[in-house]
Specification:
It is a single chain. This protein is an alpha+beta fold. The protein has a single domain (14-92), classed as Alpha-Beta Plaits, CATH 3.30.70. It contains two helices and three strands. It has a three-stranded antiparallel β-sheet with strand order 1-3-2, with helices on one face.
């Protein structure tokens, strides 16, 4: 079988990730999805960071267009995490 890359994206892709929650749940994903839906460039992923652990973290991913320019994506991810935490604090209080 021959596979072609019709989107012509580079073979190497670089991502920044920030941990939103160390133990993910459906509730946390739904809360975060409301914040992320407005931003197409950020993707959510549930992934076990610790090997041999049953804990699944909730991460926000941002693909980098160039490796040199990463300060704005870091600020964007940190802003998302702050909004997520503020939302959780409102629910808890």
């Amino acid at each position: 079988m021959i596979v072609r890359n019709h989107s012509k994206q580079p073979k190497k892709r670089y991502f920044l990730a920030i941990s939103l929650a160390s133990q993910s749940s459906d509730l946390l994903v739904n809360l975060t999805r409301e914040l992320v839906d407005k931003r197409d460039e950020i993707k959510l992923i549930q992934f076990s960071i610790q090997p041999k652990s049953m804990r699944v973290s909730l991460l926000a991913l941002k693909e980098l267009n160039s490796v040199e320019n990463y300060s704005k994506p870091i600020e964007l991810l940190q802003e998302l995490r702050n909004k997520f935490r503020q939302k959780l604090l409102k629910i808890a209080s």
